[in-house]
Task: structure prediction
Amino acid sequence: MTTLLVSHPSSLEHDTGPGHPERADRILVLERTFESEIFQMLHRELAPALDYAALLRVHPADYVERIKAAAPAAGLIDIAEDVVMSPGTWEAISHSIGGTVAAVDEVMRGKVNNAFVAMRPPGHHAEIARPMGFCFFNLAAIAARQAQAVHGAERVAIVDFDVHHGNGTQQIFWSDPSVLYASTHQMPLYPGTGGAGECGAHDTIVNAPLPAGAGSKIFREAMATKIFPRVDAFAPDLIVISAGFDAHRFDPIGGLHLEVADFTWATARLMEIAERRAHGRIVSILEGGYDLIALARCASAHVQTLMGA
Ligand SMILES: [Zn+2]
Result:
């Protein structure tokens, strides 16, 4: 197995201010984690800058320009609730999108088996023309569209195990039968969407809400009975993972009680489906995860699993 790790130092320059959970330290701990000897076989790439064509397949040009123009020359600015921009934010956004696109390109061309995009800001709350919940642009959606538009993928499945529902991803693909969006998340919790009855216009949205306090057993049961069979039956050409690790029991924002082993388990099951349906192709994109130790351990286990270690 060859696993690609995509990163860029600009992820550290998106400054969200003191006390903000979605902070540069998240990437610093991942950088340190992936320096370990167990990761020496990773194929590493520096994320290129923004691919506008890929971005504009998901978000309209006026929204892109509005966000770009909002970046301050100095200091911090709130552009939406919990969405902060600093002078380095646009550069971080640019490479997070460029890195996502590069990961899809490498996986779809068969240069690597799978990829992990370890960058920020995250993306799954970003709607078509609205920043939300630490997110500006929807990386998982950009990945799915890149696979379809450039690499001829007919169907893409996006599996989201972040503790929060990916309202943005759901909105973007609500009426699109070519993309399956399947999510486990705590409910009730921000952003409030993701009820089991929200199925999309073509029954290609699959929501498995979990109650606060749910742990391994309930999570694995939901994945095994509600998510995996649907992903498998969809027969995707690529699986995109919205890999948030804030469902871990240590997370200060989420109220689920997952263990590191649950992320390993879910990753391994998705790899089995990908092997069967998608030539093993997986592009995993970092979303949330706000306890630094838990984030490092979960991401480490996730990537080791992707490596087949
Ligand atoms: Zn989250």
The domain at 3-306 is CATH 3.40.800.20 (Arginase; Chain A). Residues 162-164, 244, 246, 287-288 surround zinc ion (CB under 6 Å). The chain is about 40% helix and 15% strand.
